[in-house]
Amino acid sequence: MANGNTEKADIADIIARLSLFAEVSPTQLQHVAAAAREKRLAKGEMLFQKGDPARNLFVVVRGQVKLAFPSAQGNEKVVHVVGPRQSFGEAVMFMDRPYPVFAEAVMDSTVIQIPRQPVIDLLQRDTSFALAMLAGLSMRLHALIDDVEMHSLRSTTQRVIGYLLQQCSTEGSGAAEISLPTSKQLIASLLNLTPETLSRVFRDLDDAGLVEVHGRQIKIPDIAKLREVDF
């Protein structure tokens, strides 16, 4: 689809809300915003393919973008589903290597595309920005390590419970109701499960009284009880 017409002031405001750019001065922020472009994607439209040159970082404004590996069998492994106010593409942009995954809009979406050079300029001039980017990439690395641990060392049921607990805004006990942020098929791929296995785990948890599943709406009667479950 064609690029949109978001004003530069709006782009600067969106960028400023990212933790990555929180400490950047207004002048430097305008420098980045001046080079940024809005791009609108239809559901199923590719933002980039695996192997494309990595020349930009991206910020999701509306919708969702999935990052995934293709396979020769026609399947895919979803690595991450990026939602509003989240960025992606930072790390590979500095490696002078192609994208290792493809990016596809899960629904009609809008992203901001930020070219490499203005970000390089900021890194060279502003140590606080460099530290913020290092912190952001470090957090991403820790999250990746946690994902590897979840997918390789935990049972299928524990993976699903862990995912549900990540979606809860409440840390303690009590009830919670969440809306799954994306389709069950994508969640299954994220958790290295088949859709059928995910559905079975949801049924088992529902039968055990630990959750109540109504489509993409999940009610957890007791968060503490769900957290303590050891399958």
Describe this structure as you would to a colleague.
- With 231 residues, this protein is α+β, with helices and mostly antiparallel strands.
- It has 2 domains: 8-140, Jelly Rolls (Sandwich), CATH 2.60.120; 153-228, Orthogonal Bundle (Arc Repressor Mutant, subunit A).
- Helix content is 42%, strand content 23%.
- The chain has a 4-stranded antiparallel β-sheet. It has a 4-stranded antiparallel β-sheet with strand order 2-7-4-5. A 3-stranded antiparallel β-sheet has the order 9-11-10.
- β10 and β11 (217-220) form a beta hairpin.
- α1 (8-16) packs across α2 and α7 crosses α8 (195-207).
- It is globular and about 55 Å long.
- It starts with 7 loop residues before the first helix and ends with a helix.
- The model has no long low-confidence stretch (mean pLDDT 84).
CATH architecture of the largest domain: Sandwich
Quickly count the helices: 9
| Biggest sheet strand line-up | 1-8-3-6
Could you state the order of secondary-structure elements as H and E?
A: HHEEEEEEHEEHHHEHHEEH
Quantity of strands, as a count: 11
Q: Kindly give the count of domains.
A: 2
Identify low-pLDDT runs: none
CATH class of the largest domain: Mainly Beta
Query: Into which percentage range does the β-strand content fall?
Result: 15-25%
Distance between the terminal alpha carbons, to the nearest Å? Answer: 47 Å
Coarse structural class: alpha+beta
Overall radius of gyration: 19 Å
Mean pLDDT over all positions: 84
Fraction of residues in helices? 40-55%
Describe the sheet with the most strands.
4 strands, antiparallel
| CATH H-level homologous superfamily name of the largest domain | Jelly Rolls
CATH topology of the largest domain: Jelly Rolls
Q: What's the shape?
A: globular
